[in-house]
Design brief:
- With 335 residues, this protein is α/β, with parallel strands linked by helices.
- Helix content is 48%, strand content 16%.
- The chain folds into two domains: 214 residues, Spore Coat Polysaccharide Biosynthesis Protein SpsA, Chain A (Alpha-Beta Complex), CATH 3.90.550; 108 residues, no CATH class.
- The protein has 13 helices and nine strands.
- Strands 1, 2, 3, 4, 5, 6, 7, 8 and 9 form a nine-stranded mixed β-sheet that branches.
- The model has no long low-confidence stretch (mean pLDDT 93).
Amino acid sequence: MTPSPVVTVAILTYNGEKYIERILKKLRKQDFAEPFEVLVIDSGSTDRTLEIVRSYEEVRLHEIPNSEFGHGKTRNLAAQLANGEFVAYLTHDAVPSNRKWLSELIAPFQRFPEVMAVLGKQVARPRAFPLQKYEIHGMFRHLGPDFGTTLFYATPDLLEDAASISVMSYYSDVNSAVRRKFLLEVIPYRDVRYAEDQMFGRDLILAGYTKAYAPRAMVEHSNDLTLQEYGHRIFDETVGLRQIGNDIPVISRAAVVTYAAKGTIGDGIRIARDRAYSWKRKAYWLTINPAFHFAKWNAYRRSALVDLDDHGAIQAGSLEHKRKVKHEQRSAESA
């Protein structure tokens, strides 16, 4: 690491002790030809996250109160603190899969000057529940082939097509990179409650800029969620999309059952064919996975119906709010 890095790898952490050391070890082993730095922004961790980060002398740590964290706001802060020309973002549970992760994430900028942001690939963890695993794999498979880089940009005739814009603007900042100057001076992240990455991707495309999908820049990532947490997470994500202007149609209770049943059948076939599972694991998931489908569509229906001005109702269904309350309770108990 040197004082003049080309890339700043920014990791946003909050109680990330489970994966943060694996991430930092992977970063130490990156095969990247140019200097880069690692910046961790922690928002009030109460577990061993800070202890682990401080044990890596080359890592720059910046701490903020949990109350100051915002998905877009804190990523903008990372760009302000960064020294690199490019800022590569990781969440505290996204683990680079190989030594070429950073090289592959930055390569589209160097090869294509018109690219302003890059989206990397995610693969689910081995113990992810099947619904989550297959949705992650399906999403990134549709972005482009694994053997090449895909560029996304809108031509004037496509700007009137909402469906095309939705596909072209898809963006996840779990594993991503951006030109620092572009983020600071042209299109920053918006300070919204949720879906800041989807809004950034849409803002970028609608403004006439280009983003890239780099599948060889791969991380292992899937949220470690219980069945109950998964429903609340779907609620957060769907309400977040509504709050940034996406049209989310309301579905009936009968549709909840229909969609859950169809998803269960489709996943059942995938589970039966999935060589990553032993026969015992297949039997387990064939029994458990249907509950995740019903949780998903129930949460979707609730989030489509909730009044966006009813902050109490939104907080009642929000996983992020529940975690924030727990953090405040722990802080009060330790004070």
